[in-house]
Structures are given as structure tokens and as C-alpha cells.
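Pipeline run #58 for the internal structure catalog. This entry was flagged by the ingest filter as a single-chain record with no existing model, so it goes straight to prediction. Upstream metadata was stripped on purpose; only the residue string is passed forward. Reviewer on rotation: M.T. Logging verbosity set to normal.
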Amino acid sequence: MNVLSIGNSFSANAHALLPQLLKEEGEEILLCNLFIGGCSLERHWNNWRKEEQAYAYEVYLPGETVMNRPEGVALHEAVEDEDWDVITLQQCSALSGVRESYTPYLAELAAYCRMVQPGARILLHQTWAYGAYCTAQAFQTYHNDQEEMYRALAAAYAAAAEEAEITQIIPTGTAFQLARQTRVGDRLTSEDGMHASTAGEYLGAACFYEALYGRSVPGHPWCPPALDPAWLPALQFSAHTAE
């Protein structure tokens, strides 16, 4: 399967453990991420229109778990690079719950991807709310309230998907909220409260796994070395039940 994400560090987090998860069952994937830290849909849109060679192109080749990362790639170059089976789009985390920030950028980028890659599924990757301990200024938009941020981003992603005629959302943000109600607690993000910890990276990979392949992750035996195996059932159940 060939998968391209037009994203930022949050898609990079969700990609990080997916090649290893798939390798354990003999599945190969070409997994690529167009990376600019904190990149919004508006910035992606502007980069596309101006053909800016502004991205790091994070590439996991089939069967490999180590990333290659050439620099200076344009969005249109990546979209045209392969016959993609799946292309994912997402909003930056800071604006994830700001409904107007998606318009018209998501719909126009999705339309462009459909035009160039008519055989690809276009998916919307739902990012997650920050850890409750996060001190980033962007968290103030949501009154430093994790649940408020989650409710806002879930509503914004749903409305934006409908407007852009995207029929499938990868519900990573919902999976994070579900997992936070388990023994894992609020340990899905790293020290900055924004980016994924190993547990969050595993959960993101599990959400991609279910969305891309239509398979159930519960019972999958692989556990990252840095992850407490006791957390695995809760993380897998959260990814599987998120909608």
C-alpha cells in the first residue's frame, strides 16, 4: 500500500511506529509524510499554489522501519510522485478546533488530490487534544481545558469533512480521549503536552492501521520496547472503538 500524509509533526507521530507494526505481520507499506512543523491547512494551500519547495519528505520504504528524509520538496511533487492508494490531510493542532480555519483550504486540497490521484482514498486525520498539563500558548484558545479542546476539534473535523466530501476520518483524537479514561491516563503526550509519547505514537499507528486496512488491532502481539505491555490492551481497544 502507498500512503501519503500532507501534515506536520502530528502525522509524523502517527507514522512513527506503523511500519514496525505492519512488519510484524509481513505487510509492506510505502509511507510518506510531507513535513513542516506546525503546518496549517492554509499554509499547505499556499505552498501548493506557489509551488514552494518547503517540505521535508519523510519516507519509510516498503519493508523498512528507518526513515529517509530528503529536504526541499514541493507539495505537488509529492502528490504526483507515486500512485497513491491513500492520501491523508489534517489541520495543525493549534487550529484543530477553529472551524473557520479549514475553509476553503481543506476542500480545495482534497479536490486537487482527487484530480491528480483519482484512484486514491482521501482521508482526514483527526489530531488530538493536548495533555492537561500543556503550557503552550495555543492551549489558551481552549481555556487550557483538554476536554474543551477535544470537543471543539471533533466538531470542527466532522463539519470540515462533510464540506470537503471526505467520507472517512482517522479518529486519532477520539482514541486519545478514550485511552485517557483507562489506566494509561494522561500519558499519551510527551513533556511538551502536545506531541505524542511512545504510547501516543503507538495509538496513532493503531488508528492508521485500522483505517488503512480495515483490520482490528486488538490482539496484535507487537509492543514497542519502550511501551509498558500492560497498556497494550487499553490502547488497542481505544483505537478499535474510536469513531
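catalog note: The mean pLDDT is 98.
catalog note: Residues 2-241 form a domain with the Rossmann fold fold (CATH 3.40.50.1110).
status: ready for reviewer M.T.
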